[in-house]
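Lecture 7 notes: from sequence to structure.
We start with the chain below.
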Amino acid sequence: MEHPLSRRKALHNACAGLAVAPFLQGIAARAADQSGRTPKRFVFVVRANGILPTELQPQGLESLVRPRGARLSQKKLITAPLKDHSLSRGLAPLEPWRHQVTVLQGLSGRMANESHGAGYGALGACRGAKGGAPPTTPTVDGLLSRSFNTPFAHLGLAMEEIGPQVVYTGLFAAAAKKPLPCYADPMTAYQDLFGSVVTDRQLKAAAAVDRNVLDFMVSDINRFRATLPGVEKEKLEHYLEGFRSLKAQGEKLRAMKKQLTAAAPDLTDDFRSDVEIERLKAHFQLATSALIGGLTQVVSIRADHLGLRLTGLGLGSKTVHQIGHMIEGEKGGSGGEKFDNGMGEFATRERIMNFHMQQIASMAKQLEAVPEEDGTMLDNTVILYLSDHGEKHHSNCFEWPMVALGTAGGALKAGQYIHVPGWGEDRHNTIAHAYVSLLQAAGIEQDQFGQPDLTLPSSIDQTGPLSAWMS
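Predicted structure tokens for the same chain:
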């Protein structure tokens, strides 16, 4: 199935009313990293429906968690080396990298508690915006993206139904009132990321047209600006800067021709597929190639959403939302849906997670194959997998299970299981502590992130990193 190219449509919209401004702001919002250090990379994979604590629990440690949000509050910190415990069946594709895996249990996110999904709160550790309202604070991926000087400060990729090319998911934000855009169409993303080096005749021609249209727009706006009064001229300057940024970005991409040619993914049928899981494969391949090619150091992938049907996984016609209402052992589940092929909630969830882990494993394998200083690209990367809403479909966010792969250049510990004291217990940790760990791993000196959980006892320190995760 052919999809029109986003940039050309964006430029068309701009000609009609300069409506592309938010997308331009997302691209232009970047700052240079002057440290000269080895690049560190951060990948966020966010899914819907919550993650049951049992889904991540290493084998041999099952007694420490309960399914479906039945809390078993720990009184103290528990850590265990993963060399002594195989990963859960859902995480099985990551077994070759078990020494690089960290399972995080017991973190809470009550400050972000919302029904069905925390929105910006999931990565922002804050109250999520309701009803499509703009973000009130940056999310951790948006804050990280300010530290790196790459053509794409942040690369967002999102699963949507066929149609939208660029979307705002309500999950990722560069700053207050500045949501980050995501590519929904893999072909559009391919064109914008690798269009400067493509050999496909149609895409190559499209890239040339895009460059010509950009040159025309910059020139035309400059001429038009001279006819405007001061206030209107200032407004137009904002839009002009966005087009200049796009043009400069294109020039930077063309200067990277050699490395982009080497990193560009094969243009397989997945990129044009109507099948959801095939498009998700394409998104992961785009993310991996963008990291290897130096196009970005921060990637966020929205792996699904509640209205999506995961065609291709053998789960029938259920939406992700309907899957969330399944309850193991109850015929039909609380949503009234019959189990397909005799599969209950746990088996269904396991199949979805296993597929996600296959994509993360493929990314890890490719990054590990690229030498970097005394190690590989994977050594300087961390991939964080989490839900947008805590420990179950209708979460109360007393727990927010996560799994990480990588150490971000040795800044974070790996090969371990970390279970923090339960909500309300002394030395409890929230998701904000985990995000401060990521910021500090990137060299950002920050001790606090997001909003505090005002329902926690005041004796619990909500600043600083998750110390058990820091090297």
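Points to note: The radius of gyration is 22 Å. The chain is about 35% helix and 10% strand.
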